[in-house]
Design a protein that fits this description.
seven-stranded mixed sheet, single chain, 2 domains, Nucleotidyltransferase, domain 5, alpha+beta
C-alpha cells in the first residue's frame, strides 16, 4: 500500500503523519521546538537551525513506526506557519533566527511596501502589515551582517531544501504575504524595488502540490524515507487544515480553532477586496480562491486565563451552567487582525463574573462571537457559506464549545478535531501521486465529522450577549462599518 507523509512545522512543535489514499493515518510522530525569543517588545524570533533536526528526528521516528511500510512512501509535503521568514545561504540553510508570524518589528518596511503598490495590494485584498513576510524580509536584508545571503525564504522552504538537497522553489500559499501575486503570477516588483529586494534573492514560485524535487540520499539517511520519493509543495498551516476538513469546494467553509481562530473558505470569486484589510485570499490550484482571515483570539485565551486548570472539568461545569452573565472579548495583548483590523484593539469584559465557571464560559462565548462576526464580514464581501460549516483544530474537540458556537452562529457545525495541518500536508503530497489532483485527493482523504446543532433554549440569551458584544466593538471604533 502506497503512503504519503505530511509535515506540520508549527511554532511549538513538528508533527509528521503517514496516511494512505483514503486518509487513514498509519503512524504519527512529534518533536517539540524551542519557544520563540522576545528580545524586544513586538519582536518574536525562533532558532531556525532547530527546525531540520526536529523534522529529521520526527521522520526517523515515523519511519521506525511504519517499519517495512516506510519503503512505500511515495511523496512528502511540508506546511508551516504563515509569514515566518528567514535568510538562507547558498545551501538553503538558515543564516540566523527566523522572524515568526507574531513578529511586529517591520513597521517602516510595511508602510513602504504598501505605498509602493497600493493598487496591486487592493486587487489581492491585502493590506501590508508588519507581521507579513515581505516587510520582515526587507528588515532582515537591512540588518543581517556577515556573509551575503543567497535567498530569502519561508519556514517551509528550509525543510523542503533539506529534503531535496537543493534550493527548491516555494509555493504560492507561503509566498502570498511575502509579495507574490497569484493573479498576475509573479512578484510585486514595485514593492521589491522600493524595499531593495533583488530578483536573485527571490525563490521560484509554483502552485501547491507541484513537484519541488525528490528526496536526497542524505535526507533519506536522516529520515528513513526512501531515496527519490517525491517532495511536493505545501500550503500554509490553516490552508492545509482546511483541506483536511474537506472545505475546499466553492461555498464550503471551515473554522480552524486552535491557539487562534481562523476562518477559511472556497470561492469562485477573484480575491476579495476588503477595504479594512482583514480578509485575504490564497490561490487553489483548481483555479478558485480561498478567502479568510485569522483572529488574534482563540484557544490560547483559555490557557492564559486558566493556566493550571483542568479544562475538560471546566467544560463539563460550563455545559451545566448555561450562558454567562458577562460578555467578554478574550483578546490577548494589543491588536486584532480579523474580523476587523485594529492595531489598538484590546480585550474587554462587560460585567463581573460570578465565579471561575462564569468567566470560563464567557471566554468560550467570546470566541464564538468573534467567529460569527467573521462570517458576517465574509458574507458582506460576497463569500457566502453553503451547507454545514466544518470545524477543525483542537478547540473543536470540546462538545460544549461546539454547541455554543453553533448556537451563536445559528447553524450546524461539523466537528472534525482530527482535521489537522499534517493530514492536510498528506493530501497535498497525494495530489499527483496517490490521486490525480488536489481536488480528488481532498475528496478522498478529508476526515468525516460529527454534526453539532444549536441549543435553541440558550439561543435568546446568547443573542442578547452577542448584541452587547457587537455594540461594545462598535463603540470602540474598531469596525469601519456598523454591523
Amino acid at each position: 500500500m502506497d503512503l504519503v507523509v505530511g509535515i506540520d512545522l508549527a511554532t511549538a512543535a513538528v508533527r509528521a503523519v503517514a496516511a494512505d489514499a483514503s486518509g487513514t493515518i498509519h503512524a504519527a510522530a512529534e518533536r517539540l521546538l524551542p519557544q520563540p525569543d522576545v528580545p524586544l517588545p513586538g519582536w518574536s524570533e525562533q532558532d531556525a537551525g532547530s527546525w531540520w533536526p526536529a523534522v529529521a528526528s520526527a521522520l526517523a521516528d515515523l519511519s521506525d513506526r511504519l517499519g517495512k511500510q516506510a519503503g512505500n512512501v511515495a511523496a512528502v509535503s511540508v506546511s508551516a506557519t504563515s509569514a515566518t521568514v528567514v535568510a538562507l545561504d547558498a545551501a538553503g540553510a538558515p543564516m540566523g533566527p527566523a522572524l515568526t508570524y507574531a513578529d511586529q518589528r517591520a513597521v517602516t518596511e510595511a508602510a513602504a511596501a504598501q505605498a509602493a503598490a497600493p493598487r496591486r495590494w487592493s486587487t489581492l485584498g491585502l493590506t501590508m502589515a508588519p507581521s507579513f513576510g515581505l516587510p520582515k524580509w526587507a528588515w532582515i536584508l537591512g540588518h543581517l551582517g556577515g556573509a551575503p545571503m543567497a535567498r530569502l525564504g519561508h519556514a517551509s522552504d528550509v525543510v523542503v531544501n533539506r529534503l531535496t538537497g537543493t534550493l527548491a522553489p516555494t509555493d504560492t500559499s507561503h509566498a502570498l504575504k511575502s509579495g507574490y501575486d497569484p493573479v498576475q503570477r509573479g512578484w510585486v516588483t514595485e514593492a521589491m524595488e522600493a524595499l531593495g529586494i533583488g530578483d536573485h534573492l527571490l525563490p521560484e514560485v509554483l502552485a501547491p502540490a507541484c513537484l519541488a524535487g525528490r528526496l536526497s540520499r542524505d535526507a533519506s539517511r536522516a529520515t528513513g524515507l526512501p531515496i527519490g520519493c517525491e517532495v511536493r509543495l505545501g500550503m500554509t498551516d490553516s490552508c492545509a487544515a482546511q483541506l483536511a476538513a474537506g472545505a475546499a469546494e466553492p461555498g464550503e467553509f471551515v473554522s480552524v480553532l486552535g491557539s487562534t481562530l481562523v476562518l477559511k473558505g472556497a470561492s469562485l470569486l477573484q480575491p476579495l477586496a476588503d477595504p479594512a484589510g482583514a480578509v485575504y485570499s490564497h490561490f487553489h490550484p483548481s483555479g478558485w480562491w480561498l478567502p479568510g482571515g485569522a483572529s488574534s483570539t482563540g484557544g490560547r485565551a483559555l490557557i492564559a486565563g486558566f493556566p493550571h486548570a483542568d479544562l475538560q472539568h471546566l467544560d463539563a461545569l460550563a455545559a451545566g451552567r448555561g450562558p454567562s452573565t458577562i460578555v467578554a472579548y478574550p483578546l490577548l495583548g494589543k491588536g486584532e487582525r480579523f474580523p476587523f483590523a485594529a492595531e489598538k484593539a484590546q480585550g474587554f469584559t462587560l460585567g463581573t463574573p460570578r465565579d471561575d465557571v462564569d468567566r470560563y464560559r464567557a471566554i468560550l462565548e467570546g470566541v464564538a462571537f468573534v467567529e460569527r462576526l467573521g462570517y458576517d464580514r465574509l458574507r458582506a464581501l460576497g463569500a457566502e457559506p453553503k451547507g454545514l460549516i466544518a470545524s477543525a483544530g483542537n478547540g473543536s474537540a470540546s462538545a460544549v464549545w461546539n454547541t455554543i458556537r453553533a448556537t451563536v452562529l445559528g447553524a450546524c457545525l461539523e466537528a472534525k478535531p482530527s482535521a489537522g495541518t499534517a493530514l492536510g500536508a498528506c493530501i497535498l503530497a497525494a495530489a499527483g501521486t496517490l490521486h490525480p489532483d488536489l481536488r480528488s485527493a481532498t475528496a478522498a482523504m478529508a476526515v468525516a465529522g460529527k454534526v453539532c446543532e444549536p441549543n435553541q433554549t440558550e439561543r435568546p440569551a446568547l443573542e442578547l450577549s452577542y448584541r452587547r458584544f457587537l455594540r461594545a466593538v462598535n463603540e470602540r471604533g474598531w469596525l469601519q462599518e456598523p454591523q
